[in-house]
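User: I'm putting together notes for a lab meeting next week and I want to include a structural view of one of the chains we've been expressing. I don't have a solved structure, so I'd like a prediction I can at least talk through. The sequence is below, exactly as it appears in our construct file.
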Amino acid sequence: MNTQSSAIGETFRARVVAPAEISAAQRLYWSVRRELWEHRWIYLAPLGVAAVFLFGFFLSTVHLPAKVRGLEVLDLAQQREAIARPYDIAAASMMALAILMSVFYSAEALGSERRDRSIQFWKSMPVSDATTVLAKASIPLVIVPALTSAVALGMHWIMLVGSTAVLLGQGMSPAPLWRGLPVFQMWAPLLYHIAAAHALWPAPVYCWVLLVGGWARRAALLWAALPVVIIGVLEKLIFNTSHFALLVGRRLIGDSPAMADIPHNAFPTHPMTHITAGRFLMSPGLWLGFLVCAVFLVGAVRLRRSQGAM
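Assistant: Thanks for the context. Below is the predicted structure for the 310-residue chain, given as structure tokens.
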């Protein structure tokens, strides 16, 4: 009996003392949580920009009743353009913010932990360099697009509900507003555009800046831009062309002709926008960009590993 009790006790103590195995997915998840905890501006910046924009928008609603009355003399396309303009500006502000946030975060992600000498502490944690680099890369490639998309949709909804309340308060029907603003039709191309144009297509640029940020001791953005400038100048002097500079610039702003068929001079959220996701996902430029991303990320992992060994 004593022998059996001892065996049971040993088994129980072994289960209590043995640490639980942490999966690779959990390590990545908590590494991303760490980035958000250290860089709170990642979610505070979109909320701050949205708050400022909504404040200005609701100040402008004093003119909304007169604008709605003026819609009667316009055709349906002109009504849509007049009503949707502030909604397009709201979405554009989130898109521009996503680019700025992604570039500045990528420049600081690896360099900041080296400058404040916290790299040795974080490398003592049971998280590999590859997991850490992937977590940092996920911020501009996944987290920032997801946050800005959610904030943009929230802005649209608040603007629509607020405008409806203003019209009802003036004794007017909100039907012209809802009829001229197909907001639910705008959301699908908006979400697609942010994911494709501001996450997938510019991914090589963000990964390049991430790599350079881990190498440069200061002014990472200048070091990242320097090769582009040098190659662009040499190309201009030798061939009198600017293909490389245009290639990088179009990657950064998310300009891909394979992404969608957009009416001339229209915003990507236009109801007549035809999403060509299949053509975009099969485009050689997209997959070549992914290959370049993989090279840059492998370089960033090796760079961080060598820095930790110093």
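A couple of points you could mention at the meeting. The radius of gyration is 25 Å. Confidence is low (pLDDT under 50) at residues 14-18.

User: Perfect, that's what I needed.
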